[in-house]
Predict the 3D structure of the following.
Amino acid sequence: MVEFNRRLQAGTNDPNLVFPKSAVPRWLPPQSGSPVWNDFFVAVEGSAVRGAYAIKHERLFIRGKGIVNIACYHHSLAEGIVDRSYASVGALLARDALARQPLLYALGMGGFDSPIARMIKALGFSLTLLPFYFRVVHPTKFLREMQALRAQRWRAVLLDLAAITGTGWLGIKAAQYFGRKHRGATDFVAEEVNEFSTWTDHLWDQTKSFVTMAAVRDSETLRLLYPPDQNTLTRIRVSRGNQVIGWAVVGERRKDEKFGTMRVGSVIDCWASPENAGAVVQAAAKALEKRGVDLIVSNQAHEMWCRSFEQNGFLKGPSNFVLALSKKLTELLQPLQETRPSLHVTRADGDGLPNNF
Amino acid sequence: MTSSIFDQIRTLASDLFAIPPSQIDNASSPETIESWDSVQHLNLVLALEEKFHLQLMPEEIEQMKTIGDVVKLVEGKLQTAPS
């Protein structure tokens, strides 16, 4: 595996193209009775590794069908990236994963045009983009640091001008303020908690019917995804009176050159019934603002959560975050046009944790 | 008269890789055809399976290094396929 990684690095210079060296995944290793775990697979030629991929086994709730076992296909890497004579390996990996678990999905992938997205589309996956939302906390820094907006010199000059004169600050704040449909709820309490315990289960049981599909979010699963010793993430419990009404997980993203020196917070995961989603979004955003982030981002699939983010001053931006569902998984969700708006998928699904959100 | 397996595969590859059939011979491979990348390799596998009504196994897909390999593989599979 070390040699395989070395060849990929030499051929691409992309530090992200590295497969874990250990055969046992550090994140979600297989454990007896665990509801969510990773498996690694390698394609070998003699003693040389020519490709590798991971699948995350998990349980999915589908309305009307109950709980089904599925898997997420991720970290697919093939020698064909650097050596065209191995062009067949990528296809082998994807087909191998599908043979092991026909109920498969993939998430992220960098857009419809990426090789992996095109490949799984050829295998009959249904592809859809997950909406992207952002809220600027510090407009001046956003205007100066948001590299994606500053690609052309004339735009960079305009953005600098907007930052200096304060018109940019005013424009962004106004857009976010007037985007809000109502004053936020104030009758709730948000608190940071160390772990997800049994209070999560009651909420999950009471509210899962609001979604057509979601990875199981009971306490057993959430404790594995967000273990108490994972201190880079903040777990927020939202209550009204004595009743827990929702929760969120937030964290600060690792540095990314497209955001310059900005500190970027992410609403990674969230859960609530429709009438309480707004309170959870407010609580999550406030926790990140308290941390001092300059920008807050989130990807959401469910129309209720999308609406709640918009109603809380988030703006919709261009997304390249793809959700891909295998043919067999799509069959379970038919008619997809009707079920798609209520799929609950966030950055915590797929391979997004613990660092890649 | 039906066209040979090579001709059929060449036509299929020509459509897939968007190059004239005349530029495809037995030695053609991902190294000589620019558009033959990993995605197109998968599309080639799927197209072969559909056209010739066969199922390619992982080790067979791995053998498909050149058009000549593909022709040999498909001919072999068709000969052993139950009629």
In short: The radius of gyration of chain A is 21 Å. The longest strand of chain A covers residues 48-62.
